[in-house]
Design goal:
Blueprint (H helix, E strand, L loop, with lengths): L1 H6 L5 E4 L9 H14 L2 E4 L4 E2 L3 H34 L12 H12 L4 H8 L3 H7 L9
Parallel strand pairs: 1-2
Antiparallel strand pairs: 2-3
Length: 143
């Protein structure tokens, strides 16, 4: 979209299907449309009936953007409230850890005892790179 707007010139018209997906937020959309207006480019949204050439189109444009921002803000508030309630009940986000602290200690003990990471990875069904991250190789000199 940014690339398209940079090549548009006076007299061109940007036509979209729906207005509420045009910008990240109201301010972003308003700045984009200000840029279009300064370039002499008209904007129309087919499903929303917005045509910035007309006063009613500009009015509808602002109302639709405001409603979309309001809906987005409500959704964010609900999400944050839900996460706070879950935290207060002792739940934290994300999936449960695949391995307990005890299992990690067992893996570390096997590696310390001389077992290869590949062997430990096969036994515990864990990625080799995960073992290297969790138990880095120490004492190796590099050039």
């Amino acid at each position: 979209l940014k690339e398209l707007i940079t090549v548009m010139k006076s007299g061109d018209e940007l036509i979209v299907w729906k207005l509420d997906r045009i910008g990240r937020n109201v301010l972003h959309a308003l700045l984009m449309f200000q840029n279009l207006h300064e370039k002499g480019v008209n904007f129309r949204s087919i499903t929303d009936g917005v045509d910035l050439k007309t006063a009613s189109g500009r009015y509808n444009f602002r109302n639709i953007l405001s409603a979309a921002q309001y809906e987005s803000d409500l959704n964010s508030e609900r999400t944050l409230a839900g996460l706070a309630i879950a935290r207060s009940k002792g739940r934290i986000g994300g999936r449960r850890p695949k391995f307990s602290d005890e299992q990690w200690q067992q893996m570390g003990a096997l590696i310390a005892a001389g077992k290869s990471r590949r062997y430990v990875a096969r036994i515990y069904n864990v990625g080799l790179s995960t073992l290297y991250k969790r138990f880095p190789v120490t004492g190796i000199q590099t050039k």
